[in-house]
Amino acid sequence: DRSTLSEKVEDFQIRLKVICARQLTGSNIKPVVKVKAGKNQAKITRIRKGSAPIWNELLMFNFNESLKELYDYVFEFALNNSRKLRSDALIGSFKLDVGTIYDQPGHAFVRKWLLLTDPDDASNSPKGYLKITVCVLGAGDQPPDESAGKDDDNDDVEGNLLTPAGASLRAATFTLRVYGAEDLPQMDSGSLKSMKQRIGLGEEGDITKTLVDPFLSFIFAGKKRKTQIIKETNQPEWNEELNLPLKFPSMCDSIKLTIKDWDRIGSDDPIGTVIIPLSRISSTGEEANGAGTSLLHAVDGFPPTFGPSFVNFYGSPREFSKLGDSLDDLNIGKGIGCAYRGRAMVELVTTMDEEGAEPAPPSQPINDDQIALVKKYMRRRRYRLVVGFESANMIRKPLERIEFEVSIGNYGNKFDTEVGAASSTTEPGNPVFDGVNYHYMAWTSKKPILMVTSQWEDISFRLYAMNLILRTCERMEGQINHLNELVKVEADEIEIASEIVSILDMLILETSKKLPDPRGRTASNQLDRRIHRQRLQTFVAICEEAKDLRQNCTDAQEAISAINDFLERLKLVSYEPQNSLPDVVVWMISDNKRIAYARIPAYEILYSPEKPEFCGRYCAKPCTITLKYPTANAKSKKHYKVPAQLRIIAWLGRAADQDSFEFHSRGQISVYADTFETEMKILVKGWIADGYTDITGEIPLPKSAFSCPPGWVWDGDWKINSELALLYDTSQGHMHVLEDAFEYQYRFPGGTWEPEKITNGKHEEIPNLSSLRIPDGWEWENEWTVDSNRACDEDGWEYSAPDDDTAGEVAWSTIEKTYSTSRRRRLIRNRVCIDQKVSKKAEGWEYATTMGSQFHIMPKMLDLVRRRRWVRKMITSEASGPAAIFNLDTSIKITFDISLKSNSAKKSKKIHKIPTPKIYIVYKDVSKLHLRAYIYQGRDLLPMDQDSFSDPVVMVSFLNQTHRTEVQQHTLNPVWDQTLMIDIQFYGDLEHLQRNCPDVLCEVFDKDDLGSLEFMGRTSGKPLLQFDPEEDETPRLQWLNIRKANQAGGNILAAFELILKSDKREMPIPPPLKPDIHVPMVPCGIRPVLQRTAIEFLVWGVRDMQSFQLLSVDSPSVLIQIGEVEIRTKIIKSLKKNPNFAEPIYYLEANLPVDDLYFPPIVIRVKDNRKFGRRPTVGQHIITNSISYRIKPPPEESHYCHTGNESFISLSWMHFSISEDDEATPLLKFHEYTKRIREDEIDWWSKFYASIGESGMAGNYVESGLDLIKVYTNELEKQENFKHFGDFIQTFRLFRGKGVLEDEEPDFAGQFKGTFRIYTLPEDKREPNPPKFFQNVPPTDVVEVKVRIYVIRAFELAPQDSNGLADPYLKIKVGKKRI
């Protein structure tokens, strides 16, 4: 009852925290919240961007009213779009009276959502949500504890919602129809099943299909529904409808679908998770309407609809292991999944509930008519995927037997038993060391091609439209970047205008193109038609606005922001929610373990027969892919390590279009059929023939089983291929190889040491050291020596005791104990390559103990089998083009002899994959390329060592070569000034190289004391191609931005050029060498032009120094570096007595670049001089932009001879001066009072009130005509005429340590006071230098000063006492004095 409220006037404070907003209508908006409270108070938040902004701002309102009055005050929240004109900027508003808040428990609403509506909108539909905390604090009230209910995405929104009267949230139901799933991986171990089969209880057949018990769960806004469990199948058909009630429009923006595997014991395992954002599958009808769209194109919105369509699930690799691995988190939607894990057919329908209707049951079966209708979405087409590998380089570790696998969905998965064989993996090979840091695959003229045939439903019309829009976006981004460059270098206005016009022309042309129409396609559904309509309307709107802009625009900035606006709107409609073609995944496999992967979206390499602009951007074009380590941990270091980099060409198209497949490459596609001749060793007879088999030795493959498929002809006869034998020689690519061996000895306890055995480096036993022969073309450099650089005693021995080998690994220790029974030492010997061309043995046999074990080249005692490989080459016949590779499925005809195999067929249930022929693209000629990388300098690199520095070195990688620069010690702004020259043998198509040249990759590492490299970031740049002998350009140095995972890591100034060596072309002259270390420098013409420059420093002192390593900073000195020159100041003896330097002025001459772009940063470091000569850096500040300190050289003598007292800095060429006339004018002037007015009527307060305009308090001061004071509304530092309280010296904040993450600042370490000036000197040294800049500087000694502070009054303090007031007083601290 409000009549009983007190009418006593009290102080109230209302605190309001605006937290965030969600689901605001409109696209590309910049929302801002305006809060009106009571009669005349209004406050406004900062501007944010996007439709889900976060503010977290606290606003306070103070009232001096009675509670009864306060109850009727109204709070109005208005959310505006700051982009538009003020009239139509309102997005939505909400009104709330203070009484409602005061009636709540604790007089507060904590973390409530407000539903925003537009009062002018007749339908009263919701416009978005705003989250706030608001409380009314009277006398002695405590504000509520806000931290208790922390934010979660799943906090119950509908329970926390305040809706305005009349705004209706409609009740609705999501109906998710789940039809079925396929391709699910094995999730349970098959031990129990195979037991049953062995006893004969279980049914025959392949059991891996049945080892999963799937069900699907559907989660939205914290509510959950799930289907029934179908046991033992990897292709479940659920055919269920799940109904989930909700209030619409809802707050939550994502539907989460998870397929799980039911387990009898323990928890259910997730198989995969997919999240569908609601905003992508529904529309409020306001997205496409930009600022000026006419009503003709108004879009009608639609509630969320989806499907019927397949949804692909991604997660950890499919291979089943009984022990879970760390990647299982990928299956619950954390991180990016690295492998395909199946797909489900679903459909989502939203129905608005009628009043009083019966709620739908949580789950019910789908009726049969609906199931029959969905069959048409299941229709499959054959797709062909072809991937050609050009190179694989930057392989970090020397892994053995690396192969690359390409798969789309389950097709092409090497370890999957259900899908037929495909040529989806490259030949296993060992990588070759590139001499510096990485390894690469030695595919020289024969590059592997992989081919995978798969079957998917035809949804190409969705992807064509998506490709069309994405290509437009990509072109626009490129042109916008170019435009921004022009604006940045302040180019000619006409040039900027013409660039803008060309972007608009392109946009008008692209948006008037016809999008592929989903109507009439078999797989199209309602969402396709809705999205199509939305895209058409966006296209029409953008097209009209662009035409209008092109005719009427005058301001460049306005046009640029409009173009960016178009780009955002195009990106909004480019998204395709129903992309059911799985991604293409490339895996690097080593020794049958999956190491690293890359996911390529299928639409990027999709081919379209209809129009070239529908093709994906990488279709049949070479592109560079960087592989990633699979990891579910968001902070893992694996995010910035590169396991390998591939260069591939890919093509994906329907089998119907396969005749138009073309790589546009000069190489010839050729195919090798291969079979292995095997022999067995029998004790008496020696080797006897054992027929021809495939590489596993299990399927017989006589040479006669091969026949040429249509379109192919044999090229030559069968010949022995010894390439496989070379694979196992890991020393390829190294010129010096260290061979090692181990000598073992044993003894009985208390006995003497006796020789036991000698093994080679792989711990295989050998008779004696001389049996370690070396390959032809190598020779020993020295004799066998004992390696004593290990953990061993002085003779190189390590010891072990008998009971140490419990874990299988023998533990070796360095000390001989009485119970040690064996010891070993390592022997090493270097061999060096003298002739690389010596051919390997022609016989090509490889040996092994059994067919299943690993083969090696050198024969050993225990080998019982040997094999060698025969290959025969096929080439395409004249008539057929490259598309003939699709006929290879029929090249091997194998007739199994049934009678022989029948008894063994029961035992092995495995159906062997018939090996497919290997496809290569062969390049006849090799071109010689020469890359020059000019690495000049770096700036602002990440500090990696504890002393805030790094020792950076740059690795430059291009194709399969890597070179490195010298290490620059102890700096974050290194000047390498070095040219790296790399000669490359390039096998491949030069036209491809010219059109899509790969980037040159630069990686910066920090070299540790131990010599290991720590990663600091990577960047890449395009080389300047010089393929035509006529043209001759000079590359320009550019600043490249270094990134480390997602944090910025500074810049590096570099340029690259790639020259094609030919007889017609003279190579550019080699650059000059640095005198002392013989390293080529960056040549003239490319390196920055230098000139003589003078720098004057005024180093005043340091303040606020924080303690370093627990000791306070006592005697600091300052080190200032610019480029390669540096200045050290004298040491301050005691910081506590005088924090200033005795000699403040320093002068320096250096050769510095003319061009601002290349000007080196200025680094200010403060060092503390401690006992025992330690000088740690306790803080540093880096100034990258030094233009503001540059001045013209001072004019001649005559102008600036001033008398001493006028100023201590020459006035004629300075921005500021401190003149002494100021002292005559104190801040508050008191005139002589005129005698008419009595003294007691007027005091200082009346003058004050008169000045701020409260004449009621001022008495008759105003009439007296006395002068007024100027009262500023904010701090004096912010007023223009006080120059931010800066004197002639600037204050620089010092930092220390390394910044770990992107957004956190390094630790504050103190302040440095000083300034400097830079000006050019005459080139000729004989001319007199201009006079010095800092003249007559006042002494830096301590001066006694008196500081007066007038404390006048305070406003809006928070009440503290129980009576609603407070008893405030101030503490003032200056230096060490406190008041």
UniProtKB/TrEMBL annotation:
Keywords, A to Z, come to:
Cell membrane, Cytoplasmic vesicle, Membrane, Repeat, Signal-anchor, Transmembrane, Transmembrane helix
Q: Which Pfam family, any one, appears in the UniProt record?
A: FerA
Annotated segments matching region Disordered: 141-162
| GO terms for biological process, alphabetical | membrane fusion; plasma membrane organization
What is its membrane topology? Single-pass type II membrane protein
The places in or outside the cell where this protein is found are: Cell membrane; Cytoplasmic vesicle membrane
Question: Cross-referenced SMART domains, in alphabetical order?
Answer: C2, DysFC, DysFN, FerA, FerB, FerI
Q: Which GO terms describe its cellular component?
A: cytoplasmic vesicle membrane; plasma membrane
Chief location category: membrane
InterPro entries the record matches: C2_dom, C2_domain_sf, C2B_Ferlin, C2C_Ferlin, C2D_Ferlin, FerIin_dom, Ferlin, Ferlin_A-domain
Q: Which residues cross the membrane?
A: none
Q: Where is the C2 domain?
A: 1-114, 153-292, 913-1040, 1071-1199
The family line of this record is: Belongs to the ferlin family.
By what name is this protein known? Answer: C2 domain-containing protein
Native species of this protein? Ciona savignyi
